[in-house]
Design goal:
5-stranded mixed β-sheet; disordered C terminus; DNA-binding; 4-stranded antiparallel β-sheet; alpha+beta
Length: 419
Amino acid sequence: MLYAGGNLIALCDCNNFFVSCERLYDSSLKKRPVVVLSSNDGCVISRSDEVKAMGIAMGAPYYQVEGLLRKKGVAVRSGNLLLYSTVSKKVMQVLAKFTPSLEKYSIDEAFLDLSVATISDPVSYAREIRETVLRWVGVPVSIGIASSKTLAKLAGDAAKKCDGVLRITEGNLESFLNGTPVEDVWGIGRKTSKKLEGHGVRTAMDFVRRDPLWVKKLLSVRGLITQQELQGHPRMPLQLEEQIPKSIQVSRTYSEPLTEFRDVECAIIEHTLKAGKSLRRWNLATCAMSVFIRHGYRHHGECEYLTDDIYFNNPLMSDIELIACAREVLRRIFKEGRRITQGGVILCNFADSNFKQRELFDENNLFAIRAKFERLARATDKINEHLGKRAIFPASLAGKDGGKWRPARKMASAGEIRI
DNA sequence: TCTGGGGTCCTAGGACCC
DNA sequence: TCTGGGGTCCTAGGACCC
């Protein structure tokens, strides 16, 4: 088997990240088993080691495990993304001190290029990284090292089960792959692993041994890339630059079903405001918007999505225009008598926000009016950043604090956290 | 009664054209 | 009226990830 030994990639993964953040905020949780719940306190999205040992699955619906959690004295917290992203930034800052080549892969994971001549012993270097993150931020991490991202991910998983750092080398690669079920490989999900098992492929080693042409035919190029990465060939370069998003989505499951148009409209306007803010933060403008609402419950076979799109010749970024469009689409899709349980807005087809095209016959001087809307949106962003989220908001939301649709967060940590 | 939210990439198939 | 081959572009849907 070929192995690109010169290439050295580390995956640094924060252990039980959301739980670790909650423990950072409230140190009394350090001695207790903890779970963190998704929006609307719907399901379990982070578990401490003790909770994992109890057999509580990732993504388990909270109402199904609530009794057991209470019986076992597990502390339960509603998710607090603001806290987690603040801690994430700190972790990334520390990691950046150890290598110039860093890819922030997710809120709790980063790939580090360790192929630097000055690093003589990558494993002890990784231990140093681990201790530094723990000391400076207070979050425990695991680090996997290998010659490709896919192997580094596997090494990272294995590192969690030993002392926090694990390296896959040419020497231990084969036994490692033999001991890894194919469904544990990054990029091979539930459907694909079922498909592979149907062909007698059970371990990562079984997969690696198959004819590449057969793999490509069965799983397309993605499968082929995964196979090569498992053999130790880096086929997925680190993405060092922050990627500009191709779409921005804001959606929520509501705390109770909404039946009145006005309530749904307020929710959709708030989602639009959030999406617009994110759009401007990236200096983007959008040429397309989708609005969708769902009625009924997903897991009861009685749910239906109502959705429609709107397209713009000139890219938009101001709240006034985005909200007007969202309301228009919502009026097209809303149906009386439905119990709306979720709603959302998606922006896509982006252009640089500096791109502006004047209409040939602009008799009402729309060009100038739109420029004003855009300046207003940017000013609003600045003011709200300084004075708090709702210092300025559209008149269409006046008198609506959104209590009816806002997701329930019954077990939020005391107060909103800023660390 | 109660099951999150936010993304990316790839492919197949249709429409259209020469 | 029927016939062939090849190309591009777009979209919906599937699969995966955290």
